[in-house]
Structure formats: structure tokens, C-alpha cells
Design brief:
Strand content: 25-35%
Radius of gyration: 16 Å
Low-confidence stretches: none
CATH architecture: 3-Layer(aba) Sandwich
Largest sheet: 9 strands, mixed
Helix content: 25-40%
CATH superfamily: Class I glutamine amidotransferase (GATase) domain
Structural class: alpha/beta
Number of domains: 1
């Protein structure tokens, strides 16, 4: 079986619950630790799918690795290779496919609701979810939709929370987090939550019932991951 390539951009933002899903289905994966200056391949070689994780940087930053990942995404898209993006990862995919990435009018940080967008195409798998459900967020930027993409999630303060485009699933929100990851981010990014607001929660709010919330989130995440893995032909 071809392996899933996972690109990590900072140590505290790893694959989380996605790794548990890959292990459960015995799907091989290879971690590219961009934060450790690993080499980013110019070609997809023997990859079965590409996954791009989050990070505090912007896709509009002038970093060599960002250009290399954008080039790799374009190459993968030309080959119709399945791709999955989380937050920064979704923004990388969006920019590589010609869409704009820019500051959202509000940051979204913490446990906030999203709404599914019904259509005849996505109802076959989204309809098992509630019309409105809670996920974890930590972002200040957002993206436009690439040409041909279909929006599947939105929130009150961010229109494009998720989209699908063939074998691509791009998520602005974070469905991969575990309770340990939530605690890590609170420690790693204290300045981001120093001024709580309607859409930015403080540490106490994010840690309230965090284990139960993560369990619920993982039930939601499994719906998305199973859909994507099926589209990728990996399960």
C-alpha cells in the first residue's frame, strides 16, 4: 500500500487524532517534519495521498519551504492525488490552487460551532452529522474557494470552514486535536488568547470539559476522515 505523506510545520501541531485513524486502518504514513528542516520532495514519488497540518505562520510569508509545498501541491493536483489540509494546510492547498488567503475579519480560537451546508452531493455523508456542531478552532486567516470547490461547512464568522474538490478535503477548523494538543497550544500561544472576545476563548473556557468535547469531536472527525480515506481509495 502506498503511504500517506504528512507535512508538519511546527512540533506542537502534529497529526493528532488522524494518526490514530491511520493506525486503526493500518495505513502506512511518513512524517515530514518541516520544523526540523526536512527535505520537501519536488515530486509525489510513491505517495498515496498528502496531508498538510497547521502552524502559526502565514502561507503569504516569504519562506522557501512554503514555495516548495505550494509547488508540490500543484504537482499532486495535476496527478489527481488525494490531499487533506488542516487550517494552515487548507490555506496552502487553497493558495496553490489559485485562491486568495487573507486575514479573517475575526480570529476564531476555541470551541465554536460550525454549520454543514446541505447539497445532494454531500448529504450522502454529511447528513449523519447534526446541522450545527462544535469543533475546535485556532486561526486568524481564511481562504477563498478554489475554482470548482464545493463549500461544505461555514461558521458565523468564517464563511469557508471546509470544502471538497474531487479527492481534496480542506478544513479551516481543527478536527484533529486531542485534549493533549489543546493543552499544548494554550501553553505555546498564550499571546493569542490574552484578549478573549466573542470568538476567542481563554484557557479556562477551552479546558472546560475538554476530554468530553474531544471525544465528541473525534466522532465528527471520523466521519470526515473516513469520507476522505474512501475517496483516496485507502479504505
Amino acid at each position: 500500500m502506498q503511504s500517506v505523506w504528512i507535512f508538519r510545520h511546527i512540533e506542537c501541531e502534529g497529526p493528532g487524532f488522524l494518526q490514530q485513524i491511520l493506525d486503526r486502518y493500518q495505513i502506512p504514513y511518513r512524517l515530514f517534519a518541516v520544523d526540523k528542516q526536512c527535505r520537501i520532495p519536488a515530486e509525489t514519488e510513491d505517495a498515496g495521498a498528502l496531508v498538510f497540518m497547521g502552524g502559526p505562520m502565514s502561507v503569504n510569508d516569504n519562506e522557501p519551504w512554503i514555495k516548495q509545498e505550494l509547488d508540490l501541491i500543484q504537482c499532486a493536483h495535476q496527478q489527481h492525488l488525494p490531499m487533506l489540509g488542516h487550517c494552515l494546510g487548507a490555506q496552502l492547498i487553497s493558495k496553490a490552487l489559485g485562491a486568495k488567503v487573507y486575514p479573517n475579519h475575526r480570529k476564531e480560537i476555541g470551541w465554536l460551532p460550525v454549520q454543514r451546508i446541505d447539497s445532494s452531493e454531500n448529504n450522502q455523508w454529511l447528513e449523519i452529522l447534526e446541522p450545527d456542531f462544535e469543533v475546535f478552532h485556532w486561526h486568524g486567516e481564511t481562504f477563498d474557494l478554489p475554482a470548482g470547490a464545493m463549500r461544505i461547512l461555514k461558521s458565523a464568522d468564517c464563511l469557508n470552514q471546509a470544502y471538497v474538490l474531487g479527492p481534496i478535503l480542506a478544513l479551516q477548523c481543527h478536527i484533529e486535536v486531542t485534549s493533549e494538543i489543546v493543552k499544548q497550544w494554550i501553553d505555546c500561544y498564550p499571546d493569542e488568547i490574552s484578549l478573549p472576545s466573542v470568538t476567542v476563548q481563554n484557557a479556562e473556557q477551552m479546558l472546560d470539559d475538554v476530554e468530553i468535547r474531544c471525544q465528541r469531536l473525534h466522532g465528527i472527525a471520523e466521519v470526515f476522515y473516513r469520507y476522505w480515506l474512501n475517496k483516496a481509495g485507502l479504505i
